[in-house]
Write a structure and sequence with these properties.
Bound molecules: pyridoxal-5'-phosphate
Helix content: 25-40%
Strand content: 25-35%
Number of helices: 13
Structural class: alpha/beta
Length: 384
């Protein structure tokens, strides 16, 4: 593969390190990071990111599946790898073989894991109010019982906040309640003499908005990559200047840039249309450029008619429908554009910049979804 040939991702590892240090600086000194590198490290490239983190002294990671854990092990990632999600009983052997830590997603699952007959290292998920995974925080009997399974080695206890990014009083009260519930569980376990397990609760927004929590680890994902889930919250928050997220603005640096090339430049006469469904029609003589990236690379079709890209430091509009492998932009205002030119979809070009959060706005989604869908066809290139 020719580097930077068709469409690619550039990773700024200095920014990654900056984000690691910034997030650490918010937390109590003894709290360590357990970065979420699931979904190919939110599209950034799991192996590249995990290796870079390992060099920065990180020794714990979380992923969503056994396969993601094995990919890291095969790439030489040592340390603890926690699987946050479900592992089928047929794959328990792989957990053991690759020394992966499994989440106990509920009480029945604990029995299945133990019945396999080999020692499995686990972290117990506690449901403090999200009602997705974990054992109910009030069901101390079931939580304690996990220690009685002969084949389960309890190395951690954790929970997940479901509204830590929220700015309403209701969301804040609920988050505080979740924190208290988790603390209650941890304290009860300690009172019962349970030891040798670590605790963790916060993801990115738990760190940004509730940094005072005192647990052994925090599990940042999106913020580690220098992104906010969306800027929509921001706008709300600008109205109330005291918000924490606003204080954090500018303190995270985006790691990922997404780039492609001009494949072909052509002229549209007035009244001619371009692309599928003749969705775009030129109202005057226009020059258009065809870019070698499309929805199979993760560019959402919904951005058509809303988005822009950067060519030679200038914003140019996305026109027509996004194709599987191409998209069209109006480059009438860039006289010297030629095929082979670099185009920025996410990131900086001279003085202009397009954040990943812009895609979240164009698609009415969150940046987490946008970046985690970036396709495998895109080459990931580390820059330091
Ligand atoms: C994905 C995930 C995280 C990371 O979330 P961010 O909001 O991206 O920081 C943390 N914990 C759990 C359980 C997750 O599933």
């Amino acid at each position: 593969m020719y580097q930077k040939g068709r469409a690619w991702i550039e990773l700024d590892l200095a920014n990654l390190e900056h984000n690691v240090n910034y997030l650490k600086s918010l937390l109590p000194g003894e709290c360590k990071l357990m970065p979420a590198v699931k979904a190919n490290a939110y599209g950034h490239g799991a192996v590249l990111i995990a290796k870079a983190l390992q060099k920065m002294g990180i020794s714990d990671y979380c992923v969503a599946s056994v396969e993601e854990g094995i990919e890291l092990r095969n790439a030489g990632i040592a340390g603890n790898i926690l699987i946050l999600g479900y592992t089928h009983s047929r794959q328990i052997e792989q957990l053991v073989e690759h020394d992966l830590t499994q989440t106990v997603v509920d009480s029945d699952y604990a029995k299945q894991l133990s019945d396999y007959g080999k020692t499995v290292q686990v972290h117990i998920g506690i449901d403090t109010g999200m009602h997705r995974l974990g054992i109910d925080w009030e069901d101390m009997e079931s939580i304690q019982k996990i220690w009685e399974y002969r084949n389960l080695k309890v190395a951690g206890v954790f929970s997940h906040l479901c509204a830590a990014d929220g700015i309403t009083q209701k969301e804040k009260d609920y988050t505080r309640k979740q924190i208290q519930r988790f603390e209650t569980v941890v304290n009860q376990l300690k009172q019962q003499g349970k030891t040798g397990f670590v605790t963790h609760l916060q993801g990115s927004y738990g760190i940004l908005n509730y940094p005072e929590c005192r647990f052994d680890y925090a599990r940042p994902g999106i913020a580690l990559y220098g992104l906010f889930s969306s800027f929509a919250e921001y706008k709300e928050q600008e109205k109330e200047k005291q918000k924490k997220e606003i204080q954090n603005q500018g303190k995270l640096s985006p790691v990922l840039s997404l780039k492609t090339r001009v494949e072909s430049v052509r002229t549209l006469e007035k009244g001619e249309s371009a692309g599928y469904g003749m969705a775009y029609t030129a109202v005057s003589r226009r020059k258009i450029a065809v870019l070698s990236i499309g929805y199979a690379d993760g560019i959402p079709r919904e951005i058509a008619g809303k988005a822009y890209v950067l060519c030679r430091g200038k914003k140019v509009a996305v026109i027509g429908r996004i194709c599987m492998d191409q998209m069209l932009v109006d480059v009438t205002d860039i006289p010297d554009i030629i095929s082979g030119d670099e185009v920025v979809l996410i990131g900086r070009s001279e003085k202009e910049q397009i954040p990943a959060e812009a895609y979240a706005e164009w698609t009415d989604s969150i940046s987490n979804e946008v970046v985690s869908r970036l396709g495998l066809r895109l080459e990931r290139i580390a820059c330091t």
